[in-house]
Amino acid sequence: MGANSRVLRRGCRNVLVVVPFMVAGIRLMDVLALLESDHRVVVMFTVAPARNGAVCHGAEEFVRAQGGLLLPWQQAVQCEFDLVLAASETAVEQLHGQVMLLPHGAGAVPSRLRARSSGPAAGPAHGLDRGSLVHRGRLVPAALPLTHRDELAILRESCPEAVPVAVVAGDVCFDRLVTSVPWRSAYRRALGVRPDQKLVVLTSTWQPESVLGTHPDLLDRLVRELPRTQYRVAAVLHPNIWGVHGAWQVQAWLADCLREGLLLLPPEEGWRAALVSADAIIGDHGSVTSYGAAIGCPVMLTASGREGFLRPGSLADVVRQEAAHLCTDMPLTPQMEEIANGHHSCRQKMVSALITSVPGQAAGILRRTMYRLLDLPEPGRAPTNAPVPLPVPVGCRGGLAIEEVG
After folding, report:
1. Residues 6+ apart with CB under 8 A from 80
2. Please, what is the angle between helix 348-355 and helix 172-180, to 10°?
3. What is d(CA 184, CA 131) in angstroms, rounded to the nearest whole number?
4. How far apart are CA 84 and CA 370, in angstroms?
5. Each residue's pLDDT tens digit, 80-124
6. pTM (2 decimals)?
7. Are 251 and 258 in contact (CB under 8 A)?
8. Going along 102-251, which residue ranges are E strands?
9. Rounded (5°) CA angle 202-208-209
């Protein structure tokens, strides 16, 4: 059955965007931008259920905030689509159409180890293992973009039947981040950071071993201990924190910090502008920390509370070895002064080379792959890596495109 028989134009290709959780939707927005202005393409969204049948909080709200047409999952699984875009393998085997399966973080192989539940293949699992890509003997993705050539070797070992559909595409999210670096001054002005102030960005994932999971008082300490005339503090929290607990709860937890001047970035956008603006990053094993290191920002890591959960040699493991480490039982200001003055920076080129092996090329490769699956010629204009928009912290108003600030 067709996805929509009442479209504006006949013969349009139908694209379904699968959003099982907010972070997957956020990642796919950079990819969807490559389909803009093409009247031959109609885009719809659906919220995929988790394995237990539950729907992740925040996913539907995210889609509606983008203005996307939201198909109920029960309807989506009955329709035929020309292209299915997904940044998670969650439930995509139930859909009908050619699936392009992308990673939803830095790299197709996550840095954090996760165990298979049971069976003879029990052990560490990742996004390129056979269990993630094959369903009842059928290879699910028709295209499998990888961020790095090294992932091909992993794929040959873990799921050799997927190698023919793999394409080394790089990281479109990181490419846009790099393109945004020359706009650093504009982003800092939008955040209200003066030229004589240092911006410290704290970023946290959502597991118990994350920054906020192990040091819930760290943001309070930063906004109180760092001299306000010399420092501003911003927070970038994993979308799952917002999705699981809700925006009201997140802001309630950080109410005192917000009154003290904390810049809280919303989960959808603003975090990349904050990284470009930062003089120092305090983080954990998440992708945001690695992206910051890859554009040359000094990074300081907090203790995880659990050792051995990072994949040896992974991106986050390399950043862990390269970065400075925060001592939470010591005054914060001297440590921030040292790192904000450029000490303990990670080797930028080495980290960025682990994120992508085709820097700056992701937009072109991904667009070419999508139009091949759609069986359409590509638009004549060349794809570009647009700088990210101006950041709008929670509680502020704005939203200009970066081109509008000159």
Report:
1. 1, 2, 3, 14, 96, 97
2. 140
3. 42
4. 10
5. 999 999 999 999 999 999 999 999 888 766 655 554 444 433 344
6. 0.89
7. yes
8. 114-115, 124-125, 134-135, 138-139, 141-146, 166-168, 198-204, 231-237
9. 65
